[in-house]
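Colleagues,

Please find the record for the two-part complex below.
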Amino acid sequence: MLSAEEIKSIDHEVAKLPQKRAAVIEALKIIQQHRGWVSDESVTAIAEHLNMSPAEVDSVATFYNLIFRKPVGRHVILLCDSISCYVMGYKHIYEALQQKLQIKFGETTADQRFTLLPNACLGCCDHAPALMINNDLHRDIKLETLDDLLSKYT
Amino acid sequence: MERPLTKNIHAGRQPLSLKEYVSTGGYSSMQQVLKKFTPHEVQQLVQKSNLKGRGGAGFNTGMKWSFVPMGEDCPRPKYLIANADEMEPGTFKDRLLLEGNPHQLIEGMIIAAYAIQANISYIFLRWAYKKAAAILERSIQEAYEAGWLGQHIMGTGFSLDMHLHTGAGRYMCGEETALLNALEGKRATPRAKPPFPQVSGLFGKPTIVNNVETLCCVPHIIANGAEWFQGLSYSGDAGTKIYGVSGKVNNPGAWELPMGVTMRELIEEHAGGMKKGYRLKGVLPGGASTDFLTEQHMDIKMDFKSVAAAGSRLGTGTMVVMDDATCPVGFLHNLQHFFAQESCGWCTPCREGLPWVEKLLLAIEAGMGKQEDVDMLQMHTQWLQPGNTFCALAPGAMEPLQSALKYFREDFDRHIREKKCPY
């Protein structure tokens, strides 16, 4: 079931487009914003609302890497693993994060605080290495200040 | 030296509001076009200016527009799309324009839409650009309030709506036809060409997709003319270019410079040269999907023609420098991991070939490679050439690989001989 608020937001997107189903990516993003992730039940509810089959919705949901089909923690860390960050040593940042949080890419901490994911180039290569936590971009990441950075996200 | 695109962008300052943009002469080109130019005249002026697509392909923008069906009987609505899905690894130029001077893009889009008589426009923005999203949302609203978007702009018969669409990830969305599928709410797989999007694009209607930097050039071409635009350049390719350098250099960054500055000037002057203790080993001149250049190419001009003559592509003009302490095989593995991951899976050679390449490189890097593996990599650079795949992703992935095998072959052989990574 979609909430009244979710339906309102989805229909706002539908109104901008000539076909109802064209709003499916927006709908997935809206659901994720409200619920943190997109469950099977959510896929079915979106499908009913947009006159699509659940399989069609899921084929789209599983294509885009920033639609989460599994639950995530309160904060999602997206660590850039592309070429400029590779040259500038993102692997050291990854090792430090693994040690501090005791999780690897694709995992969530036991206290549900952080999910750690790799992400393709974040488009700030002149300030590599870079990462995003939720909607915040952090650049020129240094091992010494990593604890400070993480402590802002409780 | 003129810097039309970035002269009003200052690091650390807020982006220009509509009022500030107008005070720098902004929106006067749009007014001039709507009052005095026919769509055909705009197309011709831009074509004459020799503006070439800044997203990487380098196709004449005015000519691209000229393929859109015009006249009373043409299919409608027509669409104009700004490709702001900047995802080529090593590329960070459009972010500067989006976050610094959003109205420059909006004005360029209004003029481009008028030139092809499109009435609906989208900015396709990548998910990660959160700051740009907020800025663009506010700026589009300002343009509506000023009456420069919406119905009957300035009392003329021309109407244009503009929407911001933010993506949900995936490199493929930057490919023109895959972007159209993404906007239609589908998986971002590429479409067969022909028909070209200019004739049958978004929702089957005529559509133009232009890169952000390309569109930002348009108001300045209208204001100053085609000859002025050509005069900005040091070479046959017109205009300025936003170049960037990243890697172990002293001052990584992005700068608007005359088209055709040399790679040496970019790396040694603007980027401040290599960091102490490092030497330059190779350069990807225009993002992850361009062929390596090396020290012997330092004096070539960074324009479409000269970089092509040196065996690579200008691409996005934002270069990644590989230093002598970075293992070329590891570097290549990182690139091919990216391409294998971002393959949309639509066509077999790309879906199967790229992960194979990635695994071979991983094995070589780990000291478990055999001589035949290098031959197999070499064969993939043939198998994944344009014409064998549906879009340019896999051929693009082969560009750094084929040139690495040419310039850094000894590094591959050493890994195999010594059965370990020598770096």
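Residues 131 and 138 of chain A are 5 Å apart (CA to CA).

Comments are welcome before we finalize the supplementary table.
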